[in-house]
């Protein structure tokens, strides 16, 4: 394994862990599509941050996109709760609107913004090793993206381990959580803020689609394998890491996009769990149903 | 103004293609979108849109050329397959629908990207333009596309017209549709197929991400203006067609502007306008209604308080200062002020130097409210066995709602009572 491959797989694995940890909470809250919506809706935030800072300055982009992500969830909630638009329609209306806004902004400021929509949709993880972080003394610290994603991962791990109980309760039993004095709204927006942050940190290297794939795929796979949230978090992180490593070699073999290949591997992982899971798989369900069918 | 005329005259063939294409596409996807939104499957369109890509790539890899019909066929097949898989996952495991949609969407799209990049890197020169399916380019529409769009639009409209009643039934009452023996599975499949068809065709002009807006946004907006399906479909199609033309106009005046995103932008603004301003269902209309009801409650409460104050003195013409009213019943000062003014205007209360007093008309109105309050208290104690010291709160809210018909029924039921559970007199109908 050469050094470039190492960096690419490491980046993929970091994104995979971040996304799949958050994804577990998203799919348990039946909000998988909100993750999809956020990953598209951050586009205008990135463009605006780009315009204000004039460069791909990481922190302004992170802030701009995180704001837009939270604004997107706020709009979805607003249309759904206040204006009585059905939940899925309000997701659909909101993120397409923001995405369209992003593309229009890109075309208006075409000369000033070095962005296009394909980099937002599917990024290019293969370029990660090119953007190195060199200290002033010339010391090579490895790719910049790895450091950013590592930072986000640390923040996420802290967030989830410190507030595991709050996240757990508000996801499974919002009524009980509210009864013991937890603000469901606060935790909802904190979770959404974390989703936006992860999306932005990941988008440049892997693109919106891989973010969605990693947020939904590994957690869904883990959901079919276990009933315990802690195990589910662990399993989905492992599934994500395997997918990013296997995806890299698949892409190498087919000479195609790494992000696309990782999504494809995620699909295969899910398919395996869907059919062979010992507790919730197709085969075991059929076996459980058999006696009833015969009797 | 000149540009508008130039645009409307459509003398330029390219303008003609783009405009008519956008209108056809927008209107036909809006029609199908109405059904997907009503069946609460709005985001399914998003999945289909993403799932089209691997089909396009596979079709190209197998045939090695960019025959539009073959590509359409390929995209249609994978788009359709994605829906079947979503249904299979939700039916045969404990995965919920939103997760299944997200999973299928991203995995199909990922495979599509993998294939597309593999094709691009393979050095086949004919591949350029395949990514039209990714981002769409309405500006690149040509006469050939127009014929395809037109054919699909006619097909969609015809099927919806012919099977209007059946589609309506499966959208609103699946169980009933099954009971009367409609081939529900078949109809669902047909509706799904029509959706896929609309997406596959539309994607070439607005791109993968924005395609779902073409289905969802006009339908969600139109839902706010009407309760009738036929009208809703018509409004959605009209809105979309208008935005399609307007989007084409924007990119005509400023060629750097992309048509698709502008269509979606305009549609979204129209939708947000509808969410807020639509009569009856809109946010504003509902807010105003709420405020009107609240004000009416305040007014009735003021009248009631004046009446109760008078009742203790057995003299209803007496004036009371605001202070005295507030002592008897705590009311928010600001709202009370507005309420008193409104009551004055309605001639239910008159103002003099000592304060506010009920007029004759005001006393009658106050009597009505107090009467309802006490009738309800009596009803709760007699029929629902609620303790008499627990009934006041409930009566406080229901007194503003009871209609004259209900009042009559209550009276009959309680056998024309004269006193309430607290032994106070129930004022008789004036």
From TrEMBL, chain B:
It holds the Pfam family Fe_dep_repr_C. GO terms for cellular component: ATP-binding cassette (ABC) transporter complex. GO terms for biological process: cellular response to iron ion; response to zinc ion; transmembrane transport. InterPro entries: ABC_BtuC-like, ABC_TroCD, Fe_dep_repressor, Fe_dep_repressor_sf, Iron_dep_repressor, WH-like_DNA-bd_sf. Keywords: Cell membrane, Membrane, Transmembrane, Transmembrane helix, Transport. SUPFAM superfamilies: ABC transporter involved in vitamin B12 uptake, BtuC (SSF81345), Iron-dependent repressor protein, dimerization domain (SSF47979). Its main location: membrane. It comes from the Bacteria. Belongs to the ABC-3 integral membrane protein family. This is Iron chelate uptake ABC transporter family permease subunit. It comes from Rufibacter glacialis.
